[in-house]
């Protein structure tokens, strides 16, 4: 059982306790004097130092990756409710790799990885297992421990993009086969989902412990903080199924994850999933939705009606913005049911934006 952590100071966030207080208000759908606002900028007179490439820790030396993590964090101004942090990842299918799938990387860079579907026979594959000696799992835990040791007192290591529940089955079975299985062998998928759901807690707790989240609290991979635990949950496979299948297999798993976390954000990926909006907004313990409109669709600013619809269901929304567009959203949306994820051109502009929010809330 995870206990309330001892919140330790962060050298890069002198107002950490104040930010914690505002995040707690956010989870209760309350505001203190302005909405919750994650706002970052390059420090005055310094160009932002780039962090390591996505998934660098999967194949590069930990030491060089950590040096880049620290240099990048130190080059930023972490304003408002922004918590100095780093998001580790071995790619979207990392949980499938931890349970036995082969993880492959693009040959030309470190920006893409995928799991090779490995389930040919469900009867032989079940139950799914998190092997304690699995090399990818052990490397990831080792990476987290190295990050924790080097970054302690400066920044937090976030929890990670798990792609659990039906997304785990998708990675291990393949999309076409899994879709066919839902119709052909639904009772087998019942057992497969039971097996996948049982992995969520031990995976979460293993990462929580290795990254030292008991010292300072938890950030999800979407930048939302809680002093005990949180993360972002999702089911991208929902885009391929209708409400009947979603309610049988995906929804119970998502409800279970949200109940365990108690406070969480949902990564809502694309218009194809909107058929499930009622079910997702009704998940107990789900506090906020990160709407991702997709590259081929109209820009985020043109989804205001959807954002308002989500807020009407007492669910908050994540708002990516800059110091100009934040004012547009602020005129339209309920301030107690959102948090802004904003980049500013300078620390001064960041503080001026926070002052503007105070005056106009």
Give me a quick take on this structure.
This protein is α/β, with parallel strands linked by helices and 361 residues long. The protein has a single domain, classed as TIM Barrel.
Secondary-structure element string: HEHHEEHEEHHEHHHHEEEHEHEHEHEH
Q: What is the name of the CATH class?
A: Alpha Beta
Q: What would you say the CATH architecture is?
A: Alpha-Beta Barrel
Largest sheet: 7 strands, mixed
Gyration radius, to the nearest Å?
20 Å
Structural class: alpha/beta
Number of domains: 1
Count the DSSP helices.
15
What spatial order of strands do you see in the largest sheet?
Answer: 2-1-13-12-11-10-9
| Mean pLDDT figure | 95
Could you walk me through the main structural features you see in this protein, from its secondary elements to its overall organization?
The chain has about 350 residues and is α/β, with parallel strands linked by helices. The protein is built from 15 helices and 13 strands. The strands form 4 sheets. The protein has a 7-stranded mixed sheet. Helix 3 packs across helix 6, helix 7 crosses helix 8 and helix 7 crosses helix 9.
Could you give the topology of this structure?
Layout: H1 16-27, E1 36-42, H2 56-59, H3 62-74, E2 76-80, E3 85-86, H4 94-98, E4 102-105, E5 113-116, H5 122-125, H6 135-151, E6 156-157, H7 165-173, H8 175-184, H9 186-210, H10 213-216, E7 218-219, E8 225-226, E9 232-233, H11 243-261, E10 264-269, H12 277-281, E11 286-292, H13 304-312, E12 316-322, H14 325-332, E13 338-343, H15 347-359
Parallel strand pairs: 1-13, 3-6, 9-10, 10-11, 11-12, 12-13
Antiparallel strand pairs: 1-2, 4-5, 7-8
């Amino acid at each position: 059982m995870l206990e309330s952590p001892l919140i330790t100071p962060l050298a890069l966030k002198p107002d950490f306790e104040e930010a914690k207080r505002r995040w707690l208000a956010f989870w209760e759908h309350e505001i203190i004097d302005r909405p919750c606002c994650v706002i970052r900028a390059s420090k005055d007179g310094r160009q932002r130092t780039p962090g390591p490439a996505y998934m660098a820790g999967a194949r590069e030396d930990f030491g060089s990756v950590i040096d880049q993590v620290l240099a990048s964090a130190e080059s930023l101004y972490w304003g408002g409710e922004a918590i100095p942090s780093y998001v580790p990842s071995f790619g979207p299918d990392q949980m499938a790799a931890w349970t036995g799938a082969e993880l492959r990387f693009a040959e030309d860079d470190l920006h893409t990885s995928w799991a090779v579907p490995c389930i040919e026979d469900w009867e032989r594959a079940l139950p799914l297992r998190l092997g304690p000696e699995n090399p990818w799992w052990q490397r990831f835990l080792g990476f987290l421990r190295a990050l924790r040791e080097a970054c302690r007192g400066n920044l937090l290591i976030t929890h990670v993009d798990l792609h659990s529940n039906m997304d785990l089955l998708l990675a291990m079975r393949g999309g076409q086969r899994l879709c066919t299985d839902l119709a052909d062998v639904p009772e087998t998928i019942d057992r497969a989902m039971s097996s996948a759901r049982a992995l969520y807690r031990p995976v979460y707790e293993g990462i929580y412990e290795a990254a030292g989240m008991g010292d300072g609290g938890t950030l999800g991979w979407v930048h939302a903080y809680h002093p005990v635990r949180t993360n972002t949950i999702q089911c991208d496979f929902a885009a391929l199924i209708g409400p009947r299948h979603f309610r049988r297999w995906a929804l119970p798993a998502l409800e279970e994850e949200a109940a365990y976390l108690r406070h969480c954000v949902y990564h809502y990926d694309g218009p194809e999933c909107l058929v499930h909006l009622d079910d997702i907004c009704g998940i107990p313990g789900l506090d906020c939705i990160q709407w991702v409109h997709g590259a081929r669709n109209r820009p985020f600013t043109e989804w205001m009606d959807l954002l308002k619809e989500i807020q009407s269901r007492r669910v908050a929304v994540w708002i990516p913005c800059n110091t100009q567009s934040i004012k547009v959203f602020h005129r339209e949306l309920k301030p107690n049911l959102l948090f802004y994820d904003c980049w500013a051109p300078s620390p001064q502009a960041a503080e001026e934006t926070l002052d503007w929010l105070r005056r106009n809330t």
